[in-house]
Design brief:
The protein is an alpha+beta fold and about 210 residues long. It contains 8 helices and 7 strands; from the N terminus they run βααααββααβαββαβ.
Protein backbone atom coordinates (compact mmCIF):
# COMPACT_ATOMS: atom_id res chain seq x y z
CA UNK A 1 0.00 0.00 0.00
CA UNK A 2 2.30 2.67 -1.27
CA UNK A 3 0.03 5.22 -2.88
CA UNK A 4 -3.54 6.11 -2.05
CA UNK A 5 -6.08 7.96 -4.13
CA UNK A 6 -8.86 10.10 -2.69
CA UNK A 7 -12.35 8.68 -2.63
CA UNK A 8 -14.85 10.61 -4.77
CA UNK A 9 -17.19 12.75 -2.74
CA UNK A 10 -15.15 12.35 0.42
CA UNK A 11 -15.79 14.72 3.30
CA UNK A 12 -13.41 16.37 5.68
CA UNK A 13 -13.15 14.34 8.89
CA UNK A 14 -13.33 15.98 12.27
CA UNK A 15 -10.81 15.81 15.06
CA UNK A 16 -7.07 15.81 15.34
CA UNK A 17 -5.32 14.73 12.14
CA UNK A 18 -2.46 12.89 13.79
CA UNK A 19 -4.84 10.95 16.05
CA UNK A 20 -7.02 10.01 13.12
CA UNK A 21 -4.04 8.80 11.06
CA UNK A 22 -2.79 6.73 13.98
CA UNK A 23 -6.22 5.13 14.38
CA UNK A 24 -6.64 4.44 10.65
CA UNK A 25 -3.09 3.18 10.36
CA UNK A 26 -3.62 0.77 13.21
CA UNK A 27 -6.76 -0.59 11.58
CA UNK A 28 -5.07 -1.14 8.24
CA UNK A 29 -1.97 -2.62 9.83
CA UNK A 30 -4.12 -5.05 11.73
CA UNK A 31 -5.97 -6.01 8.58
CA UNK A 32 -2.88 -6.83 6.57
CA UNK A 33 -1.12 -8.48 9.49
CA UNK A 34 1.88 -7.40 11.51
CA UNK A 35 4.23 -9.61 9.53
CA UNK A 36 3.15 -8.23 6.17
CA UNK A 37 3.41 -4.67 7.41
CA UNK A 38 6.92 -5.23 8.74
CA UNK A 39 7.99 -6.79 5.45
CA UNK A 40 6.59 -3.83 3.53
CA UNK A 41 8.42 -1.27 5.65
CA UNK A 42 11.80 -3.01 5.99
CA UNK A 43 14.40 -1.43 3.74
CA UNK A 44 11.62 -0.09 1.52
CA UNK A 45 12.86 1.56 -1.65
CA UNK A 46 9.91 3.92 -1.62
CA UNK A 47 10.76 5.20 1.84
CA UNK A 48 14.07 6.46 0.44
CA UNK A 49 12.56 8.34 -2.51
CA UNK A 50 12.47 12.12 -2.52
CA UNK A 51 8.95 13.27 -1.80
CA UNK A 52 7.88 16.92 -1.68
CA UNK A 53 5.06 18.34 0.39
CA UNK A 54 2.42 20.22 -1.65
CA UNK A 55 2.89 23.98 -2.02
CA UNK A 56 2.01 26.13 0.97
CA UNK A 57 2.67 23.30 3.44
CA UNK A 58 3.39 24.13 7.06
CA UNK A 59 6.84 23.17 8.41
CA UNK A 60 7.61 19.50 9.00
CA UNK A 61 5.93 18.34 12.19
CA UNK A 62 3.36 21.12 12.18
CA UNK A 63 2.08 19.86 8.84
CA UNK A 64 1.50 16.30 10.04
CA UNK A 65 -0.35 17.58 13.11
CA UNK A 66 -2.58 19.90 11.08
CA UNK A 67 -3.37 17.57 8.17
CA UNK A 68 -6.66 15.71 8.67
CA UNK A 69 -6.10 13.30 5.76
CA UNK A 70 -9.27 14.32 3.96
CA UNK A 71 -7.68 13.77 0.50
CA UNK A 72 -9.30 16.98 -0.79
CA UNK A 73 -5.97 18.40 -1.99
CA UNK A 74 -5.49 15.40 -4.27
CA UNK A 75 -9.02 15.65 -5.61
CA UNK A 76 -8.60 19.37 -6.35
CA UNK A 77 -5.22 19.09 -8.08
CA UNK A 78 -5.78 19.63 -11.85
CA UNK A 79 -2.28 18.31 -12.61
CA UNK A 80 -2.92 15.06 -10.74
CA UNK A 81 0.50 15.25 -9.10
CA UNK A 82 -0.55 14.73 -5.47
CA UNK A 83 -0.29 11.25 -3.99
CA UNK A 84 -0.61 10.02 -0.40
CA UNK A 85 1.80 8.27 1.91
CA UNK A 86 1.08 4.67 2.81
CA UNK A 87 2.07 2.62 5.83
CA UNK A 88 5.65 2.23 4.62
CA UNK A 89 6.21 5.89 5.54
CA UNK A 90 5.21 5.35 9.17
CA UNK A 91 2.08 6.22 11.11
CA UNK A 92 3.19 9.85 11.50
CA UNK A 93 2.91 10.42 7.73
CA UNK A 94 0.34 7.84 6.65
CA UNK A 95 -2.44 9.28 4.43
CA UNK A 96 -0.72 12.69 4.18
CA UNK A 97 -0.04 14.15 0.71
CA UNK A 98 3.21 14.30 -1.22
CA UNK A 99 4.50 15.04 -4.73
CA UNK A 100 7.19 13.03 -6.50
CA UNK A 101 8.82 15.42 -8.96
CA UNK A 102 10.38 12.71 -11.10
CA UNK A 103 6.87 11.55 -11.97
CA UNK A 104 5.04 14.89 -12.10
CA UNK A 105 5.93 18.28 -10.73
CA UNK A 106 3.66 20.96 -9.28
CA UNK A 107 2.28 23.73 -11.50
CA UNK A 108 1.75 26.04 -8.48
CA UNK A 109 -1.90 26.60 -9.34
CA UNK A 110 -2.74 26.73 -5.61
CA UNK A 111 -5.96 24.72 -5.78
CA UNK A 112 -4.74 22.25 -3.14
CA UNK A 113 -4.03 25.02 -0.63
CA UNK A 114 -7.28 26.82 -1.43
CA UNK A 115 -9.36 23.75 -0.61
CA UNK A 116 -7.42 22.57 2.45
CA UNK A 117 -9.89 22.72 5.41
CA UNK A 118 -7.36 22.47 8.24
CA UNK A 119 -4.68 25.05 7.40
CA UNK A 120 -2.03 22.41 6.77
CA UNK A 121 -1.67 24.01 3.32
CA UNK A 122 -1.69 27.82 3.35
CA UNK A 123 -2.99 29.68 0.25
CA UNK A 124 -0.28 31.65 -1.55
CA UNK A 125 -1.78 33.28 -4.65
CA UNK A 126 -1.10 32.72 -8.34
CA UNK A 127 1.66 35.21 -9.10
CA UNK A 128 5.45 35.05 -9.02
CA UNK A 129 5.39 37.21 -5.93
CA UNK A 130 2.95 34.85 -4.24
CA UNK A 131 5.05 31.80 -5.11
CA UNK A 132 8.24 33.36 -3.79
CA UNK A 133 6.57 34.43 -0.56
CA UNK A 134 4.36 31.43 0.17
CA UNK A 135 5.94 28.33 -1.40
CA UNK A 136 8.97 26.45 -0.11
CA UNK A 137 8.78 22.81 -1.19
CA UNK A 138 12.52 22.26 -1.60
CA UNK A 139 15.54 23.33 -3.63
CA UNK A 140 16.85 22.20 -7.02
CA UNK A 141 20.40 20.94 -7.47
CA UNK A 142 22.18 20.33 -10.79
CA UNK A 143 24.53 17.40 -11.32
CA UNK A 144 26.88 18.92 -13.89
CA UNK A 145 28.37 15.52 -14.63
CA UNK A 146 25.02 14.32 -15.95
CA UNK A 147 23.67 17.51 -17.53
CA UNK A 148 23.68 17.52 -21.35
CA UNK A 149 24.37 21.25 -21.54
CA UNK A 150 27.43 21.01 -19.30
CA UNK A 151 28.66 18.25 -21.63
CA UNK A 152 28.40 20.58 -24.63
CA UNK A 153 25.03 19.29 -25.90
CA UNK A 154 22.70 22.27 -25.43
CA UNK A 155 19.39 21.39 -23.80
CA UNK A 156 17.65 23.99 -21.62
CA UNK A 157 14.56 21.84 -20.89
CA UNK A 158 14.68 22.60 -17.16
CA UNK A 159 14.94 26.33 -17.76
CA UNK A 160 11.92 26.37 -20.05
CA UNK A 161 9.87 24.32 -17.58
CA UNK A 162 10.64 26.55 -14.58
CA UNK A 163 7.74 28.85 -13.63
CA UNK A 164 10.38 31.26 -12.29
CA UNK A 165 12.69 31.04 -15.30
CA UNK A 166 15.17 33.90 -15.29
CA UNK A 167 15.00 34.05 -11.51
CA UNK A 168 15.16 30.61 -9.91
CA UNK A 169 17.01 29.17 -12.92
CA UNK A 170 19.24 31.19 -15.20
CA UNK A 171 21.13 29.84 -18.21
CA UNK A 172 24.67 30.29 -19.38
CA UNK A 173 26.61 29.17 -22.45
CA UNK A 174 24.91 26.25 -24.25
CA UNK A 175 21.93 26.71 -21.93
CA UNK A 176 23.77 25.44 -18.87
CA UNK A 177 21.35 25.77 -15.91
CA UNK A 178 22.34 27.73 -12.82
CA UNK A 179 19.95 27.56 -9.85
CA UNK A 180 19.48 30.47 -7.46
CA UNK A 181 18.34 28.53 -4.42
CA UNK A 182 17.24 31.70 -2.65
CA UNK A 183 14.53 31.98 -5.30
CA UNK A 184 13.83 28.31 -6.08
CA UNK A 185 10.50 27.20 -4.57
CA UNK A 186 11.01 23.49 -5.28
CA UNK A 187 8.01 22.83 -7.55
CA UNK A 188 9.87 20.01 -9.32
CA UNK A 189 8.92 20.93 -12.90
CA UNK A 190 12.61 21.18 -13.80
CA UNK A 191 13.21 17.62 -12.58
CA UNK A 192 10.18 16.30 -14.43
CA UNK A 193 11.30 17.93 -17.68
CA UNK A 194 14.95 16.82 -17.56
CA UNK A 195 15.79 14.75 -20.65
CA UNK A 196 18.62 12.85 -19.00
CA UNK A 197 17.91 9.62 -17.12
CA UNK A 198 18.62 9.59 -14.28
CA UNK A 199 17.68 13.25 -14.03
CA UNK A 200 20.56 15.72 -13.98
CA UNK A 201 18.54 18.13 -11.86
CA UNK A 202 16.84 16.98 -8.67
CA UNK A 203 14.72 18.78 -6.11
CA UNK A 204 15.65 18.03 -2.50
CA UNK A 205 12.66 18.33 -0.14
CA UNK A 206 12.76 21.18 2.35
CA UNK A 207 12.87 18.74 5.26
CA UNK A 208 16.04 17.10 3.89
CA UNK A 209 18.04 20.30 3.58
CA UNK A 210 20.56 21.00 6.33
CA UNK A 211 22.72 23.96 7.23
CA UNK A 212 23.20 27.46 5.78
CA UNK A 213 23.23 27.82 2.02
CA UNK A 214 21.50 24.45 1.51
Amino acid sequence: MSELTPEPGGTSPKGDGATRRTFLGALVAGAVGAAGWAAGTKDSKRSRELRLRPPGALPDGEFESACVSCFKCGTACPNDCIRFHGLESGLGKVFTPYIKARTRGCTLCGECANICPSGALVPFGDSREGWLEGVDMGKAYVNEGLCYSFAGRTCGACYRACPLAGQAIKIGLLETPHVDRDLCVGCGLCEQSCLHLPQAIRVIPRENLKGPGA
